[in-house]
Amino acid sequence: MAIGGDAPVSVQSMCSVFTHEIDVCVAEINKLVEAGADIVRVAVPERKDTAALAEIINQTSVPIVADVHFHYKRALEAVEAGIHKIRLNPGNISDRDQVNDVIDACKNAGIPIRIGVNEGSIIERKDKQKRMEELGAYFEGHRSGHLLAIMIAKLEEYLDIFEARDFHDVVISAKSMDATLVIDAYTEIASRFDYPLHLGVTHAGTRETGAIRSIAALGTLLANGIGDTIRISYASDPVYEVEDGVELLCSLSMRDRTGIELIACPTCGRIQVDLFTLVEEVKKTLDSAITVPMKVAVMGCVVNGPGEAEGADVAVFAGNKRGIIYVQGERVANVKEEEILDRLLQECRSFEEKIQRGEATLGQKNVEIKPPDPIGELGSGRDKIDSGDVEQITIGKT
Ligand code: SF4
């Protein structure tokens, strides 16, 4: 597979288990691949880890990256084992000859090297103060200031080593735990260097906090055309990293969906069913049952639901303990709340079969969805207005 150029943006993750435990490692890689990972990285801190690589590569279907820290020999052993890419921080290997040996080995094997200049590894360096003095005016007034200057300078220094060996099969990363620094660093790097970029927010935390930080940074960069491969990192099961990375790319239309796209209303005072539970159940059921990338909308009422669900292939508008189901704008059922899930699944399945037979097209709307009279059979906020529970506001009149 390719990274950069016209290649699609790829999703990466990193194994959280020991690489030398081959069966466990292979099982995790396969789980990540099933979730949508294109590339998987493994740590190789010890000889026994690189010794496991050949078998791991043999038993898996995606490119495997060896993450090398401190021990250049691990990189050489990984190349020998047939690894597909090396991740290296030249700042962690002080001997230039050793870095050159790794570059030469990768060049001979025809495999790329990712050069990572994480904020953490840079600010730990002894020359931090000196560098900051040297580069003090470099990014004066910039919100990420000296730190950004140091990252760029370090990267230039590392790239010099690679370019001196006429090695250009390089991917660059410059991660930080600070989303704004990540945006600034990659934006600056993209304007200065012509190498593919691996995006990531490092040490982002749990999925709950890390998702927002990661999506804010990576989404901004990707939407601006920056980034060739991404890793969202959480202090959690790496499968979540892949799921969220895939969802990010799908949301930005950078990857085709392989299952349903769920649209759900946030609910409001008009709600008359347990929508949160219904949405969870719909997602769980349809995720495993449907493979066609249809849009499915689950809306809490018929007042705004039809408008909000416009464009959905299959939609349910719930209210007054019932659900009205539409397929591409055509009303097909009106069922009790407890029957919504089964009927929705049935309609999604039959719509999927129609798509597969070529009898329907995704995204087509056959009939204009018009919400029923809100005072009609389903009930709505109107009864609350009438009963005085909520105040009706008429816009434009005093
Ligand atoms: S669809 Fe209905 S219940 Fe859901 S947010 Fe919109 S108005 Fe409220």
Question: Quick gist of this model?
Answer:
By secondary structure, the protein is an alpha/beta fold. 43% of the residues lie in helices and 16% in strands.
Q: What are the secondary-structure elements, in order, as H or E?
A: EHEHEHEHEHHHEHEHEHEHEHEEEHH
CATH topology of the largest domain: TIM Barrel
CATH top level label of the largest domain: Alpha Beta
Structure classification: alpha/beta
Question: Which key terms come to mind for this protein?
Answer:
398 residues, alpha/beta, TIM Barrel, 2 domains, 8-stranded parallel sheet, 14 helices, binds iron/sulfur cluster
What does this structure look like?
The chain folds into two domains: 10-251, Dihydropteroate synthase-like (TIM Barrel), CATH 3.20.20; 261-386, Sulfite Reductase Hemoprotein, domain 1. The strands form two sheets. It has an eight-stranded parallel sheet with strand order 6-5-4-3-2-1-8-7. It has a five-stranded mixed sheet with strand order 9-10-11-12-13. Helix 1 crosses helix 2, helix 7 (145-164) crosses helix 8 and helix 11 packs parallel to helix 13 (340-357). The protein has 14 helices and 13 strands. 40% of the residues are buried. With 398 residues, it is of the alpha/beta class. The protein is elongated, with a radius of gyration of 26 Å. Iron/sulfur cluster is lined by residues 265-268, 270-271, 299-301, 303-305, 308.
